[in-house]
């Protein structure tokens, strides 16, 4: 007697009868029986859909570790030289981060967290919210505790691109896309407008008594103590970022991806001497950070971070972890923090091979624009992080526990740290807000 050969895939009969097998002739497309005593696709698929689904694995736990050897390699250039990690903390602090364990959220938990995050009432901003105290959104310019708003400075007509407080000065300086530079008296709030530059201003930083202004095709500087001034030409396009090292160099990142280098030190009054042009980025250089071990870090709109030797001015490594513009860099202890428009903050640490690897990543629901660090009254570090959703988040480090949130009418592109727990924010509408951490905070 011949038996029909069948596949041994058994399924549940949706009608509650005995188990059956799938018709091998149907699988081959040659079954001519109707009805057939073996299962065809419709019954098979229906039955399989009722099978118990595999259980999801429990949430993993990750630890933000202190620097130690890692096996994963980052994208690097062909250099064998070891990269030293940055040991400069917030304003030179050598404090080491504590070992912290944090649970990775599952997708439902993540969505729930996003919904529960504080949001400002848009109707309250215009004075038209009819719900009053029953409104589920925040009626105010900030939420959280441990800090407060002291006031607002109005005068600029376009977005703020830089805020600085030169040492030894009783004034706070700001620059804007309206091509103006303003000096604000820290005691009275009165404003003095510098002579118009008639040029676009990309950034403003203070180095000692010097106020450095990144402009279109030039860098301008003014000493607020002896009123010495200089202006150096050479950059091709807008200067987006400026930084000096602790030796004798001034670096300027431009919108064409170049980094210009001059020999100069804040303690001198001489005009900077051109040294080199470092060309490796293919997008605007949005942020520069000086690290220990003669290292310079640059972040660009080409989605990369590059590590340079400040002595040889050679590019040593390229970090390729972000998928959109990298807008801000911050050195904290042995770590490098990077913020990007891809909605992520990445924490990088040194590997045994001399490269940097991501050891922690925080994903936001909005792109990252700027980051600065400050310490509270208990000497605990706080990360100030501005996002594209018109907010600034205050995070305790290294846990990334949210301490509070600042709201604004426009994107906040400039954050600056003052003394005594003061910090300043400037938004896309030209408004500057003054904030203070409660307690004896330190910068």
UniProtKB/TrEMBL annotation:
Alphabetic keyword roster: Metal-binding, Repeat, WD repeat, Zinc, Zinc-finger
Region (Disordered): 49-101
Keyword check for Transmembrane: no
Keyword Zinc found: yes
Ranges: WD repeats: 153-194, 278-318, 333-358
InterPro entries: WD40/YVTN_repeat-like_dom_sf, WD40_PAC1, WD40_repeat_dom_sf, WD40_rpt, WDR86-like, Znf_CCCH, Znf_CCCH_sf
GO molecular function (one): zinc ion binding
Domain C3H1-type intervals: 17-43, 115-142
UniProt biased composition (Polar residues): 83-96
PROSITE patterns the UniProt entry points to: WD_REPEATS_2, WD_REPEATS_REGION, ZF_C3H1
ZnF start-end (C3H1-type): 17-43, 115-142
Name listed for the protein in its UniProt record: C3H1-type domain-containing protein
Naturally occurring in which organism (per UniProt): Castilleja foliolosa
């Amino acid at each position: 007697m011949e038996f029909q050969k069948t596949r041994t895939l058994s399924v549940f009969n949706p009608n509650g009868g005995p188990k059956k097998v799938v018709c091998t002739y149907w699988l081959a497309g040659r079954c001519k029986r109707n009805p057939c005593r073996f299962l065809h696709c419709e019954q098979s698929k229906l039955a399989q859909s009722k099978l118990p689904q595999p259980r999801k694995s429990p949430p993993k736990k990750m630890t933000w570790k202190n620097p130690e050897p890692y096996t994963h390699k980052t994208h690097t250039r062909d250099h064998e030289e070891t990269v030293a990690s940055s040991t400069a903390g917030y304003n030179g602090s050598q404090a080491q981060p504590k070992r912290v364990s944090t649970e990775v959220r599952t997708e439902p938990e993540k969505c729930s967290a996003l919904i529960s995050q504080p949001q400002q009432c848009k109707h309250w901003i215009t004075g038209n919210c009819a719900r009053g105290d029953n409104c589920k959104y925040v009626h105010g310019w900030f939420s959280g505790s441990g800090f407060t708003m002291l006031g607002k400075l109005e005068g600029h007509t376009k977005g703020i691109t830089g805020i600085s407080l030169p040492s030894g000065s009783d004034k706070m300086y700001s620059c804007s896309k309206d091509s103006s530079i303003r000096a604000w008296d820290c005691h009275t709030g009165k404003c003095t407008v510098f002579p118009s530059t008639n040029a676009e201003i990309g950034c403003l930083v203070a180095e000692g008594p010097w106020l450095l202004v990144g402009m279109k095709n030039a860098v301008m500087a003014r000493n607020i103590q002896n009123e010495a001034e200089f202006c150096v030409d050479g950059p091709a396009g807008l200067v987006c970022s400026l930084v000096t090292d602790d030796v004798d160099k001034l670096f300027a990142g431009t919108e064409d991806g170049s980094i210009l280098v001059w020999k100069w030190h804040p303690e001198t009054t001489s005009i900077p001497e051109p040294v080199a042009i470092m060309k490796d980025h293919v997008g605007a250089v949005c942020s520069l950070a000086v690290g220990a071990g003669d290292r310079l870090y640059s972040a660009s709109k080409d989605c990369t971070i590059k590590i340079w030797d400040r002595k040889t001015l050679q590019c040593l490594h390229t970090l390729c972890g972000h998928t959109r513009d990298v807008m801000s860099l911050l050195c904290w202890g042995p770590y490098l923090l990077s913020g990007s428009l891809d909605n992520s903050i990445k924490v990088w640490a040194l590997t045994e091979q001399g490269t940097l690897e991501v050891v922690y990543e925080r994903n936001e629901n909005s792109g990252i624009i700027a980051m600065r660090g400050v310490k509270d009254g208990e000497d605990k570090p706080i990360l100030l992080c501005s996002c594209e959703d018109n907010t600034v988040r205050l995070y305790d480090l290294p846990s990334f526990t949210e301490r509070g949130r600042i709201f604004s009418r426009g994107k906040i592109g400039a954050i600056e740290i003052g003394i005594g727990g003061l910090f300043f924010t400037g938004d896309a509408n030209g408004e500057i807000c003054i904030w203070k951490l409660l307690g004896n905070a330190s910068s």
